[in-house]
Write a structure and sequence with these properties.
Number of helices: 5
Structural class: alpha+beta
Helix content: 25-40%
Distance between the termini: 105 Å
CATH topology of the largest domain: Ribosomal Protein S5, domain 2
């Protein structure tokens, strides 16, 4: 015996669906749409993460003004650090008419002026002391497990490198831009042990004694 419901035919001769069939069809279509949207969003996010080579940190954003003939002109100044969590780091300072443009310009400037840091495992090779105008930064290598002992600006910059153990002290000026440039200069001055003064002479002397 056939228990199927009889088809309902419209006046135009087309098949009319029951209310239950219409509801089921709409539910399936909505489910498929949400699934596609979720997959597209996930794929787009994965693609963006794959393309993202560097991470950036906004160290400071300040509002600055300049007096012109018509009055004061307000702009924004952004200080941004960019790094790859390995051995490349850069700092950029830029101004813009709004926060977004200032940050973007600072990121481009930071990527343009990136340096490669010479590291010993997960710390720096030697103690270094740098000065940029009024800022004075002291950085020392640390034993494994020490962590990053540093102030806000130094910690933000070092956190974008592969350095995991460091002791630092910021002296003198509290200007964030000068401190950031002093940190970059200290990392730029790192020299591996085999390139230190006297290292090659000592190595040759050891070879002669061994002979």
């Amino acid at each position: 015996m056939d228990n199927k419901q009889p088809k309902v035919i419209n006046k135009s001769g087309t098949t009319k669906l029951t209310d239950e069939a219409v509801a089921a069809k709409e539910a399936k279509a909505e489910k498929d749409f949400k699934g596609r949207r979720r997959d597209n969003r996930r794929n787009r996010r994965a693609a963006e993460e794959g393309k993202k080579e560097f991470d950036s940190v906004n160290i400071s954003i300040n509002r600055v003004s300049r007096t012109v003939a018509g009055g004061r002109r307000m702009r924004f100044q952004a200080l941004v650090a960019v790094g790859d969590h390995k051995n490349r780091i850069g700092v950029g300072l830029a101004k813009g008419n709004d926060v977004t443009s200032a940050v973007q310009k600072a990121e481009r400037r930071a990527k343009k002026n990136m340096i490669t840091v010479k590291m010993q495992n997960d710390t720096i090779w030697h103690e270094v002391e740098t000065k940029v105008t009024g800022a004075h930064v002291l950085m020392k290598p640390a034993a494994p497990g020490t962590g990053i002992i540093a102030g806000g600006v130094v910690r933000s910059i070092i956190g974008l490198t592969g350095i995991k153990n460091l002791i630092s002290k910021s002296l003198g000026s509290t200007n964030k831009a000068n401190i950031a440039y002093a940190v970059i200069e200290g990392l730029r001055q790192q020299v591996p042990k085999d390139e230190w003064n006297g290292a090659k002479k000592a190595e040759k002397a050891d070879k002669k004694e061994a002979k």
